[in-house]
Write a structure and sequence with these properties.
The structure holds 2 protein chains of 2 kinds.
Chain A (H helix, E strand, L loop, with lengths): L3 E14 L2 E14 L3 E5 L6 H9 L7 E10 L2 E2 L5 H7 L4 E4 L13 H12 L4 H14 L16 H13 L5 E5 L7 H18 L2 E6 L2 H7 L2 E6 L2 E7 H6 L4 H8 L39 H5 L5 E4 L2 E3 L2 H4 L12
Parallel strand pairs in A: 3-8, 3-9, 6-7, 7-8
Antiparallel strand pairs in A: 1-2, 1-4, 4-5, 9-10, 10-12, 11-12
Helix pairs in contact in A: 3-4, 3-5, 4-5, 5-6
Chain B lengths: L10 H8 L4 H11 L1 H18 L1 H4 L2 H6 L25 H37 L1 H16 L2 H11 L4 H28 L2 H8 L4 H37 L11 H8 L8 H27 L7
Helix pairs in contact in B: 2-13, 3-6, 3-13, 6-7, 6-9, 6-11, 6-13, 7-9, 8-9, 9-11, 11-12, 11-13, 12-13
The chains are: A alpha/beta, B mainly alpha.
Amino acid sequence: MQKTLLDVKDLTIKFRTDDGVVEAVNKVSLSVQEGETLGIVGETGAGKTTTALGIMGLVDSPPGKIEGGSILLDDTDLLKLGEEAVRKLRGKEISMIFQDPMTSLNPVFTVVEQIAEVIVNHQQLGEKEAEQKAIEMLELVRIPAERAYEYPHQFSGGMKQRVVIAIALACNPRLLIADEPTTALDVTIQAQVLELMKDLKTKSKTSMIMITHDLGVVSEICDKVAIMYAGEIVESGSLEDIFENPLHPYTNGLFGSIPDIDKEVEFLSPIEGLVPDPSDLPSGCKFHPRCKYAQHLCRVEDPSFREYSPGHFTKCFVHEGKLSVKEVKKYE
Amino acid sequence: MAQINTTLPTAKQRQKHLKKRSLWADAWLRLRKNKSAVVGMIMLATILLVVYTSPLYLDYDNDVVKPNLSQTLKFPAEGKLLGADELGRDVLARILWGGRISITIGIMAMLLSSIIGCTLGALSGYYGGKTDGIIMRSLDVFMAIPSLLLMITLVSVMKPTLTNLIIALAVGSVPSVSRMVRAQVLYIKGQEFIEAIRAQGASDFRIIVMHILPNAISPLISQFVMEIAGLILAISGLSFIGLGVQPPDPEWGAMLSSGREHIRDVWHVTAFPGLALVLTVVSLTLVGDGLRDALDPRMKR
């Protein structure tokens, strides 16, 4: 049995704004084993990034606040640690890659200085040694050392993202959170970056949380998948569980909206409607306004998150057998 | 045939070849290519050199302050290149001696106000909330008083010594410098790379000093250099109304002030100190502009 590295339980994050309370993350639970990759999938505004920032301890406060839950790294609750202790974990134990490489590097320093910076921050190394290690990191992400002393604006988007990956991995973190690392890149570069991440992950045995809305990326790289909707996880399971046997109507809807090369269809079947406003969430099951199977019960009561086969969880009344519909159609 | 070395150089060996110029060396290179900045630098260097070496070739008692009533208001001529003032003192000698005082006060006051201003501005911009409120509201109190009036009050409460003048000028310009720094810090703090750096576990101190200030400095540095110009003007203004450098010490503003009465008949008494002031301010502005462009690595061609 693998060791659990990260165990998040009932994480709740709210933002108190002038327009009311925004419930960005509601009782999210997830866990990552050592060496495993978890994909968090969901539409824009589902709370994926907020969850990640919550784990990093980077939720802007105020207005944001972690209202409850626990985040266990090994056996330490990050929420109970002091600010300073969490800061020391960041970059060393947990690293994060942000979505847009164009803006995640400091424009006035050379790339090697920026990689060396994180090494100096966390390891007892002199500037010289840190710089050497930084150059080695650059070569690891396949950037020639000749370019080490150049500034970020002299790099292309794909190269910048590789520099960002080098920074994130410089201290051999045990958990890497990648927040849509390929979204801002074009398709060929996406493939390269994914390949590189996969490669480095296996080499360094780092666990990873991959946040994305691209199911293609998930199938490439993830072992486990959690589907997020309106600040909640609606379904989670192994890659196979989710791809071969999706339970929740939302998950099925997501797959239904992807074009399939083998199927001849006139139109794709997207999910009708939009993600609800997180400051004004619907009652009962958050998905009911957009759900084809919704009945009265869904409007008043919130289904519970249950295990249907080992490791495969979902929250839907259809599967609890409480609705007249007994089955969710696959991929629709 | 030359032997081909098949072993790859190690990272350490290559590091030597790779090492490029530092940010400052780079900036210097770019500054040299900027024509107006070069003109400004030459002007400024000449002014500084001539003005700061004046004690070597001028005697304070004989050349600068000793009245010579037979020469009163003499027009420029041989021997007195820029003429003499209402007490028969050589205008050129007084401009050179006075420039030393003006420029020193200007630079010192700028340094003092930018150190205080950067600290206050960075703290309030970075931490926001209560810290920001307290710092900014206190500075607002100073802002509410016109800075010249504030300086006048401070100088008249304290004695108009050199140190007190510097303090008064610095206090007068701290609020605007802090606001400038704060605005820059706020802008840079909002950029994504700061969050990325926080995600790497950098401390607040390191983020401010290593990441925010270097990014803020290129637009600010030109402001600081031009601030010297403003401060030289302010000290001249103070001297003009008799609160700055005290007679018989020469100072550009004081010279303008005393020459004012004769401006209808004797132009040189006011024109030359004024010209010295303008040249200094223009050269500082040119250098400031050049520095702003040179310090931004994105401007590299």
